[in-house]
Write a structure and sequence with these properties.
Layout: E1 2-3, E2 9-10, H1 18-26, H2 35-48, H3 53-58, H4 60-66, H5 72-76, H6 80-87, H7 96-116, H8 119-123, H9 143-154, H10 162-171, H11 185-193
Antiparallel strand pairs: 1-2
Helix pairs in contact: 2-7, 2-10, 9-10
InterPro entries: Adenine_glyco, DNA-3mA_glycosylase, DNA_glycosylase
EC number: 3.2.2.20
GO molecular function: DNA-3-methyladenine glycosylase activity; metal ion binding
């Protein structure tokens, strides 16, 4: 566990950098139903693959600028010239495959929304509850993340492996993975209890 300046216990990963505490306390594990926020997060988790979340968090505003605030319509219209320009942008992770993947995924997400009504309605089908919930932060994948990953790949998405998807699920509140003695666990659980998954 990590003890914050306020004397309260938090998930151990908060100790890596001061930036983590605000992210942990205010964002991580709280349920999200906004399509654009969900899409941004799954894109950023794809960029994180093989890297630390600290790297991505420090560059998050740069990513938002580079990808039009993760507006799916604008991203889906990006061209090879845009990819080339992004490869010269030192403010983001300059990985051609990942850049091409999120542009592809924007188009795939628009298709999914047309088919399913919203991205949120789709992802919340995979919420982890009750006996299906593993102990906090003890696994890198679950049956739900494997299933979502498999389905997204079938729909043409890229860089959405089961570990990436589970990190997305943890962050967006589809599972409460705060440690049981973390000061935020109960707050996240309360937020989840009052949340009505979109249909």
């Amino acid at each position: 566990m990590h003890i914050g300046d306020d004397g309260q216990a938090r998930c151990g990963w908060c100790s890596a950098t001061p930036d983590y505490q605000a992210y942990h306390d205010d964002e991580w594990g709280y349920p999200v139903s906004d399509d654009q926020r969900l899409f941004e997060k799954i894109c950023l988790e794809g960029f994180q693959s093989g890297l630390s979340w600290r790297t991505i968090l420090e560059k998050r505003e740069n990513f938002r600028d580079a990808f039009h605030g993760f507006d799916m319509h604008r991203m889906a219209a990006m061209t090879d010239d845009d990819v080339t320009a992004l490869l010269g942008n030192a403010g983001i992770v300059r990985h051609r495959g990942k850049i091409q993947a999120v542009i592809n995924n924007a188009a795939r997400c628009l298709e999914l929304i047309e088919a399913e009504g919203s991205f949120a309605a789709y992802v919340w089908r995979y919420e982890v509850t009750g006996d299906a919930r593993p102990g906090p932060q003890v696994v890198a994948t679950t049956e739900a993340s494997v299933a979502m990953s498999k389905d997204l790949k079938k729909r043409g998405w890229k860089f959405v492996g089961p570990t990436t998807v589970y990190a997305f699920m943890q962050a967006m509140g589809l599972v409460n993975d705060h440690a049981l003695d973390c000061a935020i666990h109960a707050k996240a659980e309360q937020a989840r209890a009052g949340f009505k998954p979109p249909v």
